[in-house]
Specification:
about 500 residues, alpha+beta, six-stranded antiparallel sheet, three-stranded mixed sheet, 15 helices, globular
């Protein structure tokens, strides 16, 4: 192996190990917070902390350092196991590829996308039946394929409602074309388009996969996704309704996380078996201008957090061990964010908000869905500090928003949003954050008369009605946002949860 190849291989392995350790450490901190808040099995719902003993007790900082030291000792052992798994995978794949290859070091004499199919099968220990057909097309045709596929599942009215509700909830401030934005994100992140009905994988004919390891990695991910779709038809396939449908989004996050985990394993083997000194560097992707920041972040959620979830659940058994998860795919994105919820007993189940009727003042809502924890975090992060945004969204149990058409322009629509929380503390934190966000959004200065005796907030302004009602159980919050008092009254009267 050439020295530059060895160096790059070691750097890649160090990067993967560092990323894995950092993600695991972040989950450790989240787990400590959840345990402190009584959200993990075996913990209590006591939100108070015990003060350190002034007569010789350990300071909190010392206790935290000891906890982190013990945690990192555990991580060293886990990394050792992960290294053994990766080393075993490298040896196994290298031997299998060498036995069937006709080029140096077991590689084929000439690279082709089809040559990656066998490697993906070996890593994931699943077989294609039949293998996907690669169709090379100009990038303009690939984009048209993606757009046509989206329009087949989403009408113009539904697409407009997606964009309009994002403005009504405050996720964006400007109008945008939802189909155009989503098309660009898929083209940018996936780099291909798989059609299960025909078993065809469309790829850009101009892509130089042999000289661009980043493009080859994207292709491996798409091949892995096609393999998983063949074995688990329909699971996580719907890109349209995963953007705010919690259960569908959770399934897609797991399947794409499985595919990304395959890509990571392939990257290790590829680095050890190839000389990248002649490869072209990755091209820095240009952010697709039509996609607002919130949509980009929600779209990337399955790739990033789904990958972390899949790697955590397969760290002892490798990619093959993920097969068992398909027997019980995560039911909520909260489980993807917090794998300890997925592994908890009893299983975590999100609460569902139901109404007898959703028609208000003879008008049906143009948007009726859930926002879930991650999108709440994005909403809060735009105006709050990172830690405050995280705390305000954590502890989510369920939600449902309804948007009704109003006057044209920002803030013209009427919004009713009910959220359910795991603890009273979670509900109080959400209410406080929502109060800050909505007052800032409409440039309304705080007034003591807005605060109600039960902790609710009611802004009765001629130009704006903002009502944040804390439920009788102290674990639910209803937010009403409307430019019209009569509409606000009507939503409160009509939308009573069952």
């Amino acid at each position: 192996m050439r020295p530059i190849t060895l160096l790059l291989s070691l750097l890649l392995l160090a990067s993967l190990a560092g990323s894995w350790a950092y993600a695991t450490y972040q989950r450790h901190l989240i787990g400590m917070k959840m345990a402190d808040r009584g959200l993990l099995p075996g913990s209590t719902d006591d939100t108070t902390s015990e003060a350190p003993d002034p007569d010789g007790g350990e300071p909190d900082d010392v206790t935290l350092i000891k906890k982190n030291l013990a945690f990192f000792k555990e991580q060293v052992e886990l990394l050792r196991k992960e290294n053994e798994n990766l080393s075993s995978s490298v040896r196994k794949l290298s031997e299998q590829l060498a036995s069937g290859g006709d080029g140096p070091e077991g590689q084929s004499a000439g690279f082709s996308p089809e040559s990656l199919v066998r490697e993906v099968e070996l890593i994931r220990e699943l077989k294609f039946d039949p293998a996907p057909k690669f169709v090379r097309v100009p990038v303009t045709e690939l984009e048209a394929k993606i757009r046509t596929s989206l329009r087949a599942r989403l009408s113009d009215e539904q697409a407009a409602a997606q964009a309009r509700s994002a403005r009504a909830l405050g996720l964006v401030t400007e109008e945008f074309d939802f189909i155009d934005a989503l098309t660009g994100l898929i083209l940018e992140q996936a780099g291909g388009h798989f059609e299960p009905s025909t078993n065809e994988l469309f790829i850009d004919e101009a892509s130089d996969f042999e000289k661009r390891p980043d493009l080859k990695g994207k292709l491996v991910k798409e091949i892995a996704f096609a393999l998983l779709q063949q074995h688990h038809p329909g699971v996580g396939a719907d890109v349209v309704h995963t953007l705010n449908n919690d259960q569908t989004a959770a399934a897609r996050a797991f399947v794409l996380g499985d595919a990304v985990a395959t890509k990571i394993h392939y990257g290790v083997v590829d680095a050890l078996n190839n000389d990248f000194s002649r490869s072209q560097p990755p091209v820095t992707p240009t952010a697709y201008s039509a996609a607002p920041l919130y949509l980009r972040q929600v779209f990337l959620f399955p790739y990033m957090m789904g990958s972390s979830f899949a790697q955590e659940l397969s760290q002892d058994g490798g990619p093959k061990s993920l097969d068992r998860i398909y027997d019980r795919v995560p039911a909520s994105t909260a489980e993807v964010l917090h794998p300890e919820l997925y592994k908890a007993s009893p299983f975590f189940l999100p609460a569902v908000v139901t109404y007898d009727e959703v028609v208000v003042r003879e008008a049906a809502p143009y948007a009726d869905n859930v926002l879930v924890e991650f999108s709440m975090y994005l909403l809060f992060k735009a105006r709050l500090a990172e830690g405050d945004a995280f705390e305000a969204a954590q502890g989510w149990l369920g939600d449902r928003y309804l948007c009704y058409p109003g006057s044209a322009g920002p803030g013209g629509d009427h919004v009713h949003w009910r959220t359910l929380w795991q603890t009273e503390k979670d509900a109080a934190e959400f209410l406080k954050a929502a109060q800050t966000i909505w007052l800032h959004r409409y440039a309304i200065p705080w007034n003591a008369r807005y605060e109600q005796p039960d902790g609710s907030t009611v802004v009765d302004d001629p130009a704006r009605q903002i009502r944040l009602r804390l439920g009788a159980d102290k674990k639910s919050v209803v937010l009403i946002d409307s430019p019209d008092a009569a509409w606000a009254d009507a939503m409160e009267a009509a939308l009573v949860a069952k």
